[in-house]
Each structure stands twice: as structure tokens, then as C-alpha cells.
Task: inverse folding
């Protein structure tokens, strides 16, 4: 690179910024801090109001932990979904995959002659293999034929849940082993927390946190993660920059299937059975809502695992608060729907603001 | 003489950094075909967009039948009897001819569509024009020529008296062109005025009554076709002397090896048979009309579109690329015409864009991206290429065109590219940045790079190429050394006015 003109110093480079770029930068920074300050203020006001209305029960540690416990499965689905949505795709099959992998793992666990840790590990790996394989199948028509993932994963959604019911003849498969109970409803370091007079943290919550950290590092710090963003931001430019588009796209659906399998595993452990009707209700749509509310754009190219976590948390808190306030479940759905709508409307307004500047 | 059917007076239009139209005046009389010619960027499209209401003019006025009219949107234009036939048709592919012709003003009985009446109306127009096409199959299954006929019928049903055709013969066969010309003659015999935009100078004597030449946003000259020989048209189109803002090209060393060798490259439909060699330190310019197959040639070399046949060798090694990934590994950089849609991820930062094509180098032992190394390399290129950005964390969306182009270049330098395929390297870039890009190209040469450049700006091709190939219909129509090449010769060959 020696042939290039040597710069006359960084200062010169920095002083010749175009005025527009500088203005945009200032405006961006200002908007950013304004948004954060507003969000924190609004959050504080809401929390205090809610806590007051619920007679102080919202901020109790046991209640906060209950919220975390309730969002665990949705959040794990949403972490996988985040990868897919950042590539401007969608995975509608995750709820069904929870059902399918749960039943499959329960049948597997009852059939194999393992015990203890070996049983747990083998069952989990088996479930993950099933989930990942389904994700791979989801990706094939998307990658090879450029079909919309909406329809290919919709097809998988139907097939997976059908297969799930067929495998277990419509009846939940009870686990014969009790080795899964600690994972399903045990507490993490329960004795220690007990001695400190603190409510224990459920093991499933630890799983969620670990998965969140792994997913976040994968997305934000690895080459694969960078490619996911590039693909969602501009697929053609990514392809022309030599990014293996097909491989990256395939992998995001595999990751989503894997997350579904892990959620299925935890739910199976929690119920001590693999049940075909698990997670075939609102779970799918709420996981998508968590991703979008968490700031990931359905148009792709933008998003984060941390955002998704807070999206899932927001939905969990909303449900929890409405329960504490004694709001009936029908009304809860209306409120939740309104919040999701508000989130996407704000996303659109933000985009228009960006397009204008 | 009667008042012109259409008169555009002193039309001006500016875009940020560019004066697209600088006081254009033209007249169109009833019953004539006015050919509008000019180089790419001369302002023809902008002028027609103003006429069709797609864009507002900054100044000037439009008169129809001698009365001033105000066109603020496509609806106004339609109401005033202005019909546009674009190269890309505005037909709904899944509807048939009847439905397309009556689209937007469908005959109805009550709340239901009156299919019978629609068929009658459409057939009447087609019969009047002497066109026979299947009216009840999806238009997507018809030929381009048939679709064009439907567009014309659609315009006539809206009582268009002024019809603008943009490169109507670009994709037609000779036989279809005959039919189109017959149709145009029939239109003009009923008093319709046609503005006919074309690059194909050789066909104008067959169809046009007068020619208006545009250049640099002005209508330079208008004459009757009989008094306007092709040589004069070309001279009027080119007009200017070469601008002197091009840096000196270093000569190619006598012993410089051939780096890029292309043999019999084919990628249907645009690239039919292209062969050339380029040596280290050389810039090969590809000239030609839009649609001649220049961009497609670059895309085939870079494996952005995998060629159907032909060979590409880089330093004697066969490049059997199945995707851009393969060609990038071989050192090929494809700097696309459209930075925003193909060259950059606008929502990513300068740093992320610069390292994107060669991220392997930034992955540490833990399989994580080494952010500090990324920042260091990005900062180095920001300084060396003088990328005007507040920091490496700026989103490229917020940068100017010239700055964005430098980010693209930095990306390819990080990827260790040695063969640079530039497609319109300075399109949409202001003058100051242009000259910086030219200097960067020369600095690339001094590092031993090999450059192939497609440009529609003739001065750029002439000023920045050691050799020039003129591409026409996917083949090499002529080759010029830098000294032999003149704008007149290139335009004459590119437009097919003379054989090479």
C-alpha cells in the first residue's frame, strides 16, 4: 500500500467531513440518547405505577423470577427466530417443532437404555438433530428455488405437528425416567439461595440465559453473524462481496430449528412428558412478536438478541401485570395485540424518518 | 404554420449537484415523428419525465395547442392526451390484452365489470390499428412486440394525441420493427404526434420527420431529417472537446504480462461472443450503448452471472467460477454501477463494509471477529483513500456518492484484489470526487492492478483508457488504441451508423 499518497495527518481527514454527514451524525447521536432517556423514564413510571396498582406485588423478587420463568420457552424460540428475521425471512414452524421434538425426545428417552447424564445428553442431542434437520428442510426450497419462507415454513408447521400427533397417537408420552426433573423444574444452586433467604432461580431460566449469551455472541461477534446482517441488509451486495449466501441462509433456519428443539426439550422436562399440543397455540406468533418488538426489522438487516430478550420480557411483563391487576384473559389479548401494533408502527415511522434524512 | 401540438419552452431541472436540463425548448407538430437523440445523460429521459408528470420542472412552461397547461402528475398528462410507451412496459403481466387496454377505466354495468363491452372496445381499437394479437391470453405470454402494441392501444384508448416512445425498437426483430413503423405512420396520419427517442441513428431516416439533438441538458440543434446527415447528428451529440480533468495515464510497460484473458464469453441474451486480453497496469475501456452488453460482460467475468460458455483466465489460471466468491478468491473485484443496491450494505458501518469481502482475515483463534483489527484496517484505508467520514462507525447510508465509491474500493483493496472491473465508476459522483476516483485508479495501476472499465461517458472512456473496445449487440464491434479513438468514431460504431 506504500504507493498510496500518504495522508497529511488524521486531523485533516477528519476536518473535511461533509457538512451533511456531520449533521446526520449529530442528529443521530442526539436521537439515540433522547430515545434511551425517554425509554428509561417511561419504563420507570410504568413500573412504579404498576407496582402501586398491584399493591407492591410486582416488584417482589419471587414475582420477577416468575416472569422470567414464564418467558423462557418463548424467548428461546425468539432467539432462533431473530436470526431468520434478520435475513428478512420468517420461520412459522417453530411452535410445531417444539411439539414434534418434544414427542420424539420422550419416545427416544423411553426407548434407550441410558441413565442419568448420558440419557439427558443423548435425548437432547437427538432432539436437536430432529429440530436442525427440519430447519434444514425449511431452508432447501428457500435457498434453491428462492421460494418465500412464509410458505415453506408454513408447510413444515403443518407437517411437523401432524407427524407429532401421529408418532404418539395423540396422547402425551410420559417420561419413564425422572432424570429430567431437575432441568424441568429444579432450582439453580437452590440450597445456596435458600440459605441467603432468596428465591431460587429456576434451571430453565439459566438455560435461557446461556442460550441468549451464545446466540448473541454468534450474531454480534462472529463472521457468520456479520454475514447474517449483510444478507438481510442487501442480499445482492452480499453475494457480490463473496458471501456464501446459500450456506448462511440455510444455517439460520437450522439455528431456528435447533432453538425450537431446545425449547421442546425444556418443556418436555418440565411436564415430565412429551405432549403433541405443546406450543401449538400463540407461542409461535408471540415469539415473532418478541423479535419485532425487540427492534428487529422484518425487512431484515437489523436486530439483536438483547433486543429480542427485552421484547420477550415486555410481553411477559405485560401478561404478568395484567394478571396481577386481575384483568381477564380476553382483554389481555387485546392489550398485547395493541402493543405489538404500536411497536411495528413505530418501526415504520423510524424507517421513514431515516429515508427522509 | 399552425400552432404546434406540443411546445416545451425553456424547461429547466436540477438535481443535487447536477443540472439535468438547462432551458430546453422543443416543438412537436401534429402528424409528425420527432426523433430525440443524445448521449446517455443528455437529459432526454428527464425531459420526458417532466412531460409525463413523473417529475416537476424547476422552470419553463408546456403548451398544448398553443395553450399553457400545468402537469402536476401522471393523471394530468393522461387527461391532456399524453401517452408514454416506456422501454419497461407498464402492463399487468397476469391480465390479458383486453384487461390491460381497459385498465383504469373499465367499462362496467352496475358494480360488475362488463367484460363484453371491454372486449368490444379493445377489439375496436386494435382493429383500427390493424393489429391482430390474441386478446384473451395473459400478456406475459405474448412477445415483446405484441406487448408494445398493447401499450400503444392502451394509450390510444385514453385518447392520446402525443405519444412518447422510449427506445421502442431496442428489443424488436427487423420484421417487428417494420410493423411498428407501419403502425407509427398510421398514427401520424390521424394527427397524432410522436416523440421518438432512439440511440439507433441508422433507423431514423425510415421513420422520423425531424431530429432534435440534446446535449448536456440543452436542445442543441433541430433539423428536418433530409438536411441532417448522420455525421452532423453525431457531431452535434458529441459537441464538446474533451475536458482536461483527467490525470495522465502511465504507459503500460512493454513487458507487462497479460493478467486477464477472456475468450469467447457467452451469457445470453446480452453477451454473445466477447474475447480480449488486458495486461498488468492497463485500463481497458468498454464503450457502447446502454444494453449493448457491457455490464453483462463484467458480470459474467465476475461470475455475478455465471457465463454459459467461454473461458476466463487470470494470470494463466483458468477461472471456473460458480459464484462471486470464487472470482473474488482469484483476485477479481467487481465495482458495480449501482453502489446502493449492489455494492454496499447501506445499513452497515464503514468498517463493516470495508472488511466484508475478506472477513476471514479478521477472525481470531476463538472464531470471533477481531474488532480492534477491523478498526485499525478500516482507519488505515479511511486515511489512505481519504474517505470523508466522521468515523469508521458511520453508516455508509449517510455518506456522499463519491465517498461511498471509495468505501467500495477500500473493500476490494482489503480483499487483495488485482483485477478491477469498474462499471460506470463515476456515475452520480460530483466533479471533485470524480477526479479523486481517477487518481485512485491510476494508483491501482501503479500497484500493478489490471482494470476493465465500462463507462457511458465518452470523455471518461477516452480520457481514462489505454485501449477501447466498442461493444455492440454483445460482440466487439471495434477496437481502438487511445490515440486512434475519437468520440465520432465510437458513436458511429456503437450506434451502427457505420460498420467497423
Result:
Amino acid at each position: 500500500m506504500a504507493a498510496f499518497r500518504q495522508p497529511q495527518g488524521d486531523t485533516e481527514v477528519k476536518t473535511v467531513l461533509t457538512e451533511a454527514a456531520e449533521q446526520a451524525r449529530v442528529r443521530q447521536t442526539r436521537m439515540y440518547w433522547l430515545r434511551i432517556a425517554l425509554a428509561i423514564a417511561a419504563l420507570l413510571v410504568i413500573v412504579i405505577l404498576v407496582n402501586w396498582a398491584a399493591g407492591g406485588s410486582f416488584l417482589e423478587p419471587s414475582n420477577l423470577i416468575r416472569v422470567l420463568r414464564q418467558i423462557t420457552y418463548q424467548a428461546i424460540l425468539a432467539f432462533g427466530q431473530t436470526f431468520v428475521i434478520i435475513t428478512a425471512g420468517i420461520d412459522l414452524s417453530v411452535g410445531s417443532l417444539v411439539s414434534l421434538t418434544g414427542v420424539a425426545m420422550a419416545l427416544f428417552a423411553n426407548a434407550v437404555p441410558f441413565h442419568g447424564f448420558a440419557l439427558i445428553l443423548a435425548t437432547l442431542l437427538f432432539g436437536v438433530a430432529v429440530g436442525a434437520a427440519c430447519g434444514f428442510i425449511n431452508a432447501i426450497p428457500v435457498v434453491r428455488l428462492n421460494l418465500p419462507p412464509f410458505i415453506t415454513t408454513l408447510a413444515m408447521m403443518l407437517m411437523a405437528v401432524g407427524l407429532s400427533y401421529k408418532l404418539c397417537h395423540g396422547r402425551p408420552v410420559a417420561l419413564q425416567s425422572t432424570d429430567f426433573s431437575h432441568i424441568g423444574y429444579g432450582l439453580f444452586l437452590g440450597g445456596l439461595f435458600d440459605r441467603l433467604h432468596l428465591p431460587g432461580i429456576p434451571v430453565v431460566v439459566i438455560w435461557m440465559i446461556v442460550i441468549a449469551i451464545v446466540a448473541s455472541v454468534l450474531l454480534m461477534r462472529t463472521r457468520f453473524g456479520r454475514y447474517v446482517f449483510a444478507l438481510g441488509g442487501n442480499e445482492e451486495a452480499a453475494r457480490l462481496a463473496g458471501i456464501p449466501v446459500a450456506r448462511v441462509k440455510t444455517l439460520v433456519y437450522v439455528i431456528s430449528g435447533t432453538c425450537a428443539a431446545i425449547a421442546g426439550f425444556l418443556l418436555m422436562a418440565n411436564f415430565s412428558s412429551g405432549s403433541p399440543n405443546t406450543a401449538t397455540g400463540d407461542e409461535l406468533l408471540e415469539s415473532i412478536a418478541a423479535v419485532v418488538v425487540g427492534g428487529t426489522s422484518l425487512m431484515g438487516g437489523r436486530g439483536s438478541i438483547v433486543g429480542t430478550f427485552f421484547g420477550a420480557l415486555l410481553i411477559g411483563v405485560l401478561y404478568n401485570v395484567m394478571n396481577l391487576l386481575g384483568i381477564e384473559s380476553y382483554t389481555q389479548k387485546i392489550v398485547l395485540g395493541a402493543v405489538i401494533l404500536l411497536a411495528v408502527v413505530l418501526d415504520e415511522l423510524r424507517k421513514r424518518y431515516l429515508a427522509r434524512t | 404554420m399552425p400552432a404546434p401540438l406540443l411546445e416545451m419552452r425553456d424547461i429547466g431541472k436540477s438535481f443535487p449537484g447536477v443540472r439535468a436540463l438547462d432551458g430546453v425548448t422543443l416543438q412537436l407538430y401534429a402528424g409528425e415523428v420527432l426523433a430525440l437523440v443524445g448521449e446517455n445523460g443528455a437529459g432526454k429521459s428527464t425531459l420526458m419525465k417532466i412531460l409525463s408528470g413523473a417529475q416537476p420542472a424547476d422552470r419553463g412552461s408546456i403548451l398544448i395547442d398553443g395553450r399553457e397547461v400545468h402537469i402536476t402528475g401522471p393523471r394530468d398528462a393522461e387527461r391532456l392526451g399524453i401517452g408514454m410507451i416506456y422501454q419497461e412496459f407498464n402492463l399487468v403481466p397476469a391480465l390479458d390484452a383486453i384487461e390491460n387496454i381497459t385498465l383504469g377505466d373499465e367499462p362496467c354495468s352496475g358494480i360488475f365489470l362488463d367484460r363484453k363491452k371491454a372486449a368490444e372496445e379493445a377489439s375496436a381499437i386494435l382493429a383500427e390499428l390493424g393489429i391482430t394479437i390474441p386478446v384473451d391470453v395473459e400478456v406475459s405470454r405474448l412477445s415483446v412486440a405484441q406487448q408494445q402494441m398493447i401499450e400503444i392501444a392502451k394509450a390510444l384508448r385514453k385518447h392520446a394525441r402525443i405519444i412518447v416512445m422510449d427506445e421502442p425498437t431496442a428489443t424488436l426483430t427487423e420484421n417487428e420493427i417494420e410493423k411498428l413503423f407501419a403502425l407509427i405512420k398510421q398514427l401520424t396520419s390521424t394527427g397524432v404526434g410522436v416523440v421518438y427517442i432512439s440511440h439507433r441513428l441508422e433507423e431514423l431516416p425510415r421513420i422520423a420527420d425531424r431530429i432534435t439533438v440534446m446535449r448536456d441538458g440543452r436542445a442543441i440543434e433541430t433539423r428536418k431529417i433530409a438536411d441532417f446527415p448522420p455525421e452532423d447528428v453525431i457531431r452535434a451529440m458529441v459537441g464538446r472537446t474533451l475536458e482536461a480533468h483527467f490525470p495522465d495515464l502511465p504507459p503500460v510497460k512493454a513487458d507487462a504480462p497479460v493478467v486477464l484473458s477472456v475468450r469467447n464469453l457467452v451469457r445470453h441474451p446480452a453477451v454473445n461472443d466477447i474475447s480480449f486480453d488486458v495486461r498488468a497496469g492497463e485500463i481497458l475501456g468498454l464503450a457502447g450503448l446502454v444494453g449493448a452488453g457491457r455490464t453483462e460482460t463484467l458480470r459474467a467475468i465476475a461470475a455475478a452471472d455465471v457465463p454459459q460458455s467461454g473461458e476466463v483466465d487470470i494470470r494463466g489460471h483458468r477461472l471456473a467460477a460458480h459464484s462471486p466468491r470464487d472470482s473474488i478468491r482469484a483476485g477479481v473485484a467487481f465495482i458495480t454501477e449501482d453502489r446502493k443496491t449492489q455494492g454496499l450494505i447501506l445499513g452497515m458501518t464503514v468498517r463493516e463494509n470495508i472488511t466484508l469481502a475478506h472477513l476471514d482475515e479478521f477472525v481470531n483463534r476463538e472464531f470471533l471477529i477481531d474488532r480492534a483489527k477491523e478498526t485499525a484496517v478500516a482507519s488505515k484505508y479511511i486515511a489512505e483513500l481519504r474517505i470523508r467520514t466522521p468515523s469508521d462507525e458511520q453508516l455508509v447510508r449517510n455518506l456522499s456518492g463519491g465517498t461511498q465509491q471509495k468505501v467500495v474500493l477500500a473493500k476490494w483493496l482489503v480483499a487483495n484484489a488485482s483485477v478491477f472491473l469498474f462499471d460506470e465508476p463515476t456515475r452520480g459522483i460530483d466533479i471533485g470526487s470524480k477526479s479523486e476516483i481517477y487518481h485512485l485508479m491510476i494508483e491501482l495501476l501503479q500497484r500493478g492492478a489490471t482494470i476493465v472499465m465500462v463507462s457511458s461517458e465518452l470523455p471518461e472512456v477516452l480520457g481514462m483508457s489505454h485501449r477501447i473496445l466498442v461493444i455492440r449487440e454483445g460482440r466487439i464491434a471495434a477496437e481502438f488504441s487511445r490515440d486512434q479513438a475519437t468520440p465520432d468514431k465510437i458513436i458511429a460504431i456503437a450506434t451502427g451508423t457505420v460498420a467497423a
Q: What stands out?
A: Confidence is low (pLDDT under 50) at residues 1-17 of chain A. Residues 19 and 129 of chain A are 54 Å apart (CA to CA). Chain A touches chain B at residues 1, 3-7, 10, 13-14, 16-18, 20-22, 24-25, 28, 217, 221-223, 226-227, 229-230, 233-234, 236-244, 301-302, 354 (CB under 8 Å). The beta strands of chain A are 173-174, 187-188, 201-202, 273-274.
